[in-house]
Amino acid sequence: SAASGRTGLCSPHNANQRALGSAYLCPQPLVIQSMAGGHGDDGEGVDSPTAVSRTQKVNRKKIQSPSELPLPNQQPRTHPSPPRGSPSSSPPASSCCSAAISPGALFTRIGTSALCLWLPIGVSTMRLLNGDVSLSEDVLDLIHATFTTTSSMFLMTKFTSRRFIDEKKIDFETVEPYADNHGTMVISNVVKFNDAFLTMSTGFFFADLVHIFHQVVLKKNTRLHQWRERVLHHVLQFAANVPTLMSSRSTAQGMAMRTYLTQGYLAEGSDIFLRIGNIMRRFGLNKTNPILVKRNWYGLLLSFFVCRIVNFYFAMKKMLNAQKILPKNVARLHLVGSAAAYTLSVVWFTKLLSIFKAKILPLAT
Description:
The chain is mainly alpha-helical. The protein contains 14 helices and no strands.
C-alpha cells in the first residue's frame, strides 16, 4: 500500500532527511501507488505514459529543492554522507569552536613573532637611541600602532554589510568578511592575513611582557612607564586574541569573533598621535614648535574619539548581537573585557581633554 511504502522508503536515515521531510527526499510512494493500479490527478492508470511522465516530473521537481533549503548551522547535502572514517568525511561547518589550530602551534607562532620580529626591532631601536628605554618604547609602540591600524582598516573594507547564519536568520550585522551566504569560509590569502595580523599583534604584547620582566624584575627598574597598566592591558588582550585565533574560521563563532575583534583593533589609531606627541615632548618641540604640537593634539583627540569611543561602540554592538552563537564562557569574557576597556577609554578621553585645556591651549602660537 502507499502507507506501507511511505513507511519503508521514507524512514529518515540522518538529520538531513528528518529535517527536510519525506516531501523532498522520498517521492517514491507516488510511483508505488501508480504501479498498484491507482489513478493520478488526471484519472489515468499505470499504463498511461502521461501518468508516468507526470509522476517523474513531480519527483524531479521535489528532489531538486533541498539544495535551496540549508539546515540551521549545517550545510545542506543532496548526496549520501560518506562512510564514517573515510578521508572525505568532515564535521559540520559550524561545530562549536572546532579549533583551527592547536594551542601548542598557536603559542609557537606567537612566540616566534615575539622573539624573531618584535624583540629584535626593540633591541635595535634601543641601540640606535643610545639606550633610552622610554624613547625606544614610544618608537616601538608607534610601529605597532601603525601596523595594526592600517591592517584593521584594510580588513574592515572587506566586511560584508549583512549575513544570515542559518534559516532562523540570526543576524549580527556582519560576520567574518570572507564568508559566503551559508557561513562557509572562502579560503583566500586575505583570510590568512587576518589571522597573521592578530598573531603578530599578540606576539608584540608577549614581547613587551618579556621586556617588562627584564626591566622590572631583573634590573629592578620599578620606574618603568606605566608597567602595571601595560601588564593588565596585555593580559586582557591575550584573553581576547587567543580564543579568537583558536576558533575555526569555518564556524559562525570564529567568524563573529574575528569580525568585532578586527574592528576593535582600530582603537590603536589613537596611539599613533599619542606616541608622536611623546616623541615631540622629548625633543623639546613644546617650546620650539608649539603649533605642530597643538595640531598633533587635535589629531590625538579626534582619533581617540572616533577610534575608541565611536568605533568601539559599534564593535561592541556586533559582539552583543553575536552572543547567541558564541560559547558562553568566551561571550562573557569578551563582554566583560570590552566593557572595561570602553569605560577606561571614556575616562582617558576626559583626562586628555583636561590636559589639553590646561597645558596645550596656553602654548604660544
